Amino acid sequence: MSRTPSTPAPARAPFGVAPRGAFSALASALLPLAIAAAPPPAAAADTLVTYPNIYFDLYAPTTAETDEAASHVRQAQRGFGATVGERTPRITVVAFASDSVRRRHDLERLRRRGFPLVVWTSPPGELARRTPAALTALALRENLASLAHDIGHAFLEAYADRRLRELGLSGGPTPPAPPPGAHRDHAALPDWFEEGFAALCEFPQVQQARLRAMRQTLDRRLPFTRLFAMSRPADPAAAALFANQSYALLHMVTKVETGATVNEIAIALLRGRPVGEALTNARHLLSKPEALEAQWVEWMTANVPAPAAAPAAKGARGAPGR
């Protein structure tokens, strides 16, 4: 009897070795998942909504956000103009509602334009909710900078660079914008002046909140000799006191003298000279730090209402009897 030849069994791969073609099949199956999980490429800045204005460039993802951010820019312009008496430098502002939205946009083209760049992300999350009333609570509670405050820093930086060039003290270009989350700083200006000046560009509600907070903590004030020499504190509570006191001092200067005196202080500081030298020609301000501090405390006590005392609880010990 003839035997029918049997079909040979397929060769088995050794244990632990995938059959030929398994890897390519697996890769083909996983490729769509990998593509879906990959982050999308950053969108160009020209996908943002532009706010038309001849004095500044403003970008945000939506029209509502550009309108809201524009109110902060205009407020900063008013504060700068009232203090310096000049038109604000041209800047570029890009506002986002969150870090995740910011990371989806490539801003390199805007950085190359050469104007000071303010890239701002709303700390609470929604830019549309950043009304002046909400900013008041934030300034008191967490010292979160408003967009107007950050723009005030950018205005001051550009102004200081121009002044330094005019004085022959610097001929270099304006340094690039700090990375997201970093604080703007100018090497030729002390931190207290930068913070106080930026606060002069904030909404009036925030400024009043700063004054009330400073009046409440007047007994914990920083000595002026220390204030003028120290760096911005890292601790949020200490940073709030530092910023409030810096603003309250420059606020008094604008009330007792004029905004031009703040400008004179800026020029003296840019020349590397002490604050007192800028005040030697002031009509109503004392120039020595200790004397200026005493004058400021007296002015704050007389012009900023003291916080209302908390009502005593009923039946509290020591309460007068009937």
Describe this structure in words.
Residues 1-44 form the signal peptide. This is DUF1570 domain-containing protein. The protein has 322 residues and is α/β, with parallel strands linked by helices. The chain has a single domain, classed as Neutral Protease, domain 2 (Orthogonal Bundle), CATH 1.10.390. It has 13 helices and 6 strands. The strands form 2 sheets. The chain has a 4-stranded mixed β-sheet. The chain has a two-stranded parallel ribbon with strand order 1-5. Helix 6 packs across helix 7 (191-199), helix 8 (204-216) packs across helix 10 and helix 10 crosses helix 11. The longest helix is centred in the first third of the chain and has 22 residues, at 63-84. Residues 1-7, 9-19, 30-42, 124-130, 137-144 and 316-322 have low confidence and may be disordered.
Order of helices and strands: HEEEHEHEHEHHHHHHHHH
Q: Name the helicity range.
A: 40-55%
Poorly predicted parts: 1-7, 9-19, 30-42, 124-130, 137-144, 316-322
Oligomer: single chain
Number of helices: 13
The main sheet comes to:
4 strands, mixed
Signal peptide: 1-44
Organism: Eiseniibacteriota bacterium
Protein name: DUF1570 domain-containing protein
Keywords: Signal
